[in-house]
Structures are given as structure tokens and as C-alpha cells.
């Protein structure tokens, strides 16, 4: 990845392949989600929390595969889930800050993305160097996503404060008898959620957090569908079953 600030001189001739999001998703076994996307993505993806190694905050991700660098939701260059996450829709553009905690934002582009070319796709600028309609729409998408990112941060901070996050291991049992453990993911502590007092539950509901928590719990049933997808790939070792266990290593990432 080579991220650089978007410039109407340096990047005037660049076009973005319409399939940019799918190209990106091909290699992502976890796709980043915002709290407001959870209910939509839960129709297809099992959704987990993961701790950011840099700042300790939690992110929300949909699991698309049991193997790093691979997605089971891209087939024949098409995204197979009903909902397309914003992280895919925005590719290969990003909204970045010049300094930490700064509000000085700028649009950046991943120049190494396979979606970037000068031949075909959506232009970023017109002949005069003005932003194209496509770029203007992408900028709006990224600005909205920035707000949703902050709301997601507030959501994860609150549920962490209430002790509603539990670290889990995903234990894969293969047909041949081998076992593999995926570590570093967390989920909602359903037992703890059910013990909260009515005022806390009412407050979670008022903030819109309760529906997100319930959607995350319901999404775990999609693990069975993910096993089915996995087993439709003859090149992958077939899975017999999958189990969620409390993590033995709270610091595993």
C-alpha cells in the first residue's frame, strides 16, 4: 500500500475501476464495519470485536474467511453478501489527518491499488482539475464515515466500560482430525448483558447501542453458514465443526 495525498495535478489522469471494492475485499478475511452497519452486515457475516494494537481501542469486523488473506465472499469478481461495507465502497480512497487529534483532513489514495489506472473507470478530476461527480460523492461518503467512526468509538468505549466484551477463541475442527484456533477476537458477553439493571438497558436502548449488541449476537449464527461456504471450496481442508471458547490468552491479537 502506498498512500499519498490526492492532488489534481499529480492524479488528474487517474481513473478508478468500478470493481475497486471487490478487488480490495478479495484479500480481507476481516472487513471493517461501523456500529451503524452491524445490523445490515449481520444478515451474512459473523461480526466480532478486535482490539487495535496501536491504541487499545476496539474495532468491529465481519469475518469472511477462516484463513488470513482470503475472503469466501468474493466469487467471480462479485461480492456475495447482501450488504457492501463502506470500507469497500470507498476504495481506494481514504480520509486522513495530518496530525494526531487534528481536524485537518485530506483525501488520500492508495496508488498501488489494482483499481488505479489511467485507461478505464471513474475519473477523479475533469480536464480543468476540478473534482469529478464521482470524487465529490466519494468525499461525502468518507466524511459521513468519519462521523460513524467516532460513533463506533463511543459505542465500543461504553460497552467496554460496562464489561460487555469477552475475548474468545474460534476453534476449528477439521474432518481429518486436525484442530486450529483463531485468537484475537472478542464478542458480546450475553450473560453480562442479561444481568444489567433496567436503567442501564434503557440507556443502551436510547443510545441505539442495544440493537447493535443484539445484532452482533445474532450474527454469530452466520458462523455455520461460513463453514458451509468454506466446505464448498475443494482446495480447502474440509471443516467438521466450529466452537467458540473463552480465550485462555486475554492478550492474544
Give a short synopsis of this structure.
This protein has 253 residues and is of the alpha+beta class. Helix content is 31%, strand content 26%.
Give the key terms:
253 residues; alpha+beta; 26% strand
Topology, element by element:
Elements: E1 3-5, E2 15-16, H1 20-25, E3 30-33, H2 38-41, E4 47-51, E5 58-63, E6 74-75, E7 78-79, H3 86-89, E8 93-97, E9 105-110, E10 116-117, E11 122-123, H4 133-161, E12 165-174, E13 179-188, H5 190-194, H6 198-206, H7 209-219, H8 222-231, E14 239-246
Antiparallel strand pairs: 1-9, 2-10, 2-11, 3-5, 4-5, 4-13, 6-7, 8-9, 12-13, 12-14
Protein name: SapC family protein
Average predicted confidence as pLDDT = 93
Number of helices: 8
Extended strand count: 14
Order of helices and strands: EEHEHEEEEHEEEEHEEHHHHE
User: What's the structural domain tally?
Assistant: 1
Low-confidence stretches: none
- The first-to-last residue Cα distance is 22 Å
Shape: globular
Q: What is the CA-atom radius of gyration, in angstroms? A: 20 Å
Determine the strand fraction and express it as a percent band: 25-35%
Strand line-up across the major sheet: 3-5-4-13-12-14
Helix content: 25-40%
Oligomer state equals single chain
The largest sheet is: 6 strands, antiparallel
Classify the secondary structure makeup into a structural class. alpha+beta
Organism: Pseudoalteromonas undina
Protein name: SapC family protein
